[in-house]
Design a protein that fits this description.
single chain, about 450 residues, six-stranded antiparallel sheet, six-stranded mixed sheet, about 45% strand
Length: about 450
């Protein structure tokens, strides 16, 4: 039969679909194989337990296996009517063909070296919700107060990345975006540009896709694009900058949302020695960021598949996990669990994959960062309320572990306060809200961060 299993919690869930003991038509025999979809990393893992049917269909001889995007313009084939899929084999696909992440920004840690002009600015949830693809922040071309870009006149602006030095070969850009503009792409024009060194910015392409949060891969095959849509050609070895540009062209019909950008990633192919074998090992963290006191599972599924090209008689694989480059005693399995007792901090985990035979034949994965985050402390009784005309101004003392703060209200001082009045990034400037209705209203403030959520309500 066909079975489904959903594991983990959002946004780091894993959905596995398994075909268990299914027959192949019209031949005899049964096969068992599965595919796993990883939510946040957007990776896809194929695993083949039994694909021998006792016919020409053995090992994919009459099958087509691979992946492609929604438009059908980009894809990758594992096998096409060729017996190239062995029992016990596995294939893991990343979002881009280039395996190494050389730049990533989820906009949560602040400006991060980006330079905004015009209406570009960093926006925090819940403003113009959903204002981020992950966690609580994104870059936004628009106005927070009106959730549009109507200033009464023509306007334009650029969002320019920090310098990414010495771009490796085969660089690929990906990002998530939410775009709502005029439907005529001759107006409200949105471009992604790149430049090397001090040269001019040149267009990778115009973005015309509109709708809710979409991955840049979803725009492949649309107006003015091609299969190489998000590749960064001709800049290998140069210092790179990426630029997102928006121009209304005119002052009319500027009342849609605008453009939001989040989770910007550049992958490329640094060379790891003449064999290039380092790409044969890969590590995934589930999840990559946790609150202190929560375990993290690491896996090396699909790693070592290429070792047969470099080793002889490679019948089985060995594993050695590393933390910040140092071997972890006893961590020699396909998976490794970072314990819930791990102190807060950022750690780099990698795995050495080798053969039980063939001495000296091994590969090491690129390191994967795991963040163990301190939960917000409770805000002590420092909440102050001042009246300013028809509004209330709340101020408080900041606490460790909080990226921002939410002010809650309740008609009674007992239980959990669930009515959120608003949020602010610190207690210094405070939060101003209209005076709520009611004769007696109780207030409190709680710190929060994207990983651990809201802290204690003191």
């Amino acid at each position: 039969g066909v079975f489904a299993l959903l594991q983990g919690t959002a946004p780091n869930r894993r959905l596995t679909i398994e075909w268990a003991g299914v027959p192949i038509f019209p031949a005899v025999g049964n096969g068992t194989f599965e595919v796993t979809l990883f939510e946040t990393s957007d990776q896809i893992l194929f695993q083949y337990q039994d694909v021998v049917f006792g016919s020409a269909a053995d090992n994919g001889g009459t099958a087509v296996a691979g992946v492609e995007n929604a438009t059908g313009n980009n894809g990758k084939t594992i096998a096409c009517r060729t017996p190239a899929i062995p029992n016990g084999g596995a294939n893991r696909f990343r979002l881009a063909s280039s395996p190494t992440i050389i730049f990533r920004d989820d906009v949560e840690a602040g400006p991060g070296g980006w330079t905004p002009t015009g209406l570009w600015h960093r926006v925090m949830a819940p403003t113009c919700a959903p204002s981020s693809r992950s966690f609580s922040a994104s870059w936004y071309y628009g106005q927070d107060a009106t959730c549009n870009y109507d200033t009464g006149s023509t306007n334009a602006g650029d969002l320019t990345s920090p310098v990414i030095p010495a771009l490796p070969q085969d660089a690929v850009l990906s990002f998530w975006h939410r775009r709502q503009t005029e439907s005529d792409f001759n107006f409200d024009r949105s471009f992604v540009r790149a430049r090397g060194g001090a040269g001019p910015f040149t267009s990778l392409s115009q973005v015309v896709m509109q709708g809710p949060w979409l991955h840049s891969e979803d725009t492949v095959g649309l107006v003015g694009s091609s299969e190489s849509f998000w590749r960064i050609p001709g800049l290998t070895g140069q210092d790179l900058q990426i630029q997102f540009s928006f121009d209304t062209i005119d002052a009319a019909a500027n009342d849609p949302l605008g453009w939001m950008i989040d989770d910007i990633t550049i992958r490329a192919c640094p060379v790891h020695g003449p064999s290039g074998a380092a790409a044969a090992a890969a590590v995934t963290a589930h999840p990559p960021a946790v609150c202190e006191g929560t375990a993290v599972q690491l896996d090396a599924l699909g790693s070592g598949r290429l070792l047969g090209s470099y080793c002889t008689a490679c019948s089985s694989l060995t594993y050695q996990w590393r933390e910040n480059g140092a071997p972890i005693p006893g961590a020699t399995m396909l998976t490794h669990v970072v314990p819930a007792t791990q102190p807060a901090g950022t750690y780099a985990y990698s795995v050495d994959v080798g053969c039980t035979s063939g001495g000296g034949c091994s590969v090491t994965s690129d390191p994967v960062p795991v963040d163990v985050v301190v939960p917000p402390l409770g805000v002590r009784p420092t909440l102050r309320v001042d009246r300013a005309a028809g509004d209330l101004l709340f101020t408080w003392t900041d606490v460790a572990g909080a990226d921002d703060y939410a002010v809650y209200s309740s008609p009674t001082p007992q239980g959990t306060f669930t009515s959120e009045l608003g949020a602010a990034v610190s207690g210094g400037p405070g939060l101003t809200v209209p005076i709520p209705a009611g004769n007696i209203v109780c207030f409190l403030v709680a710190g929060r961060n994207p990983t651990c959520g809201t802290g204690p309500q003191n």
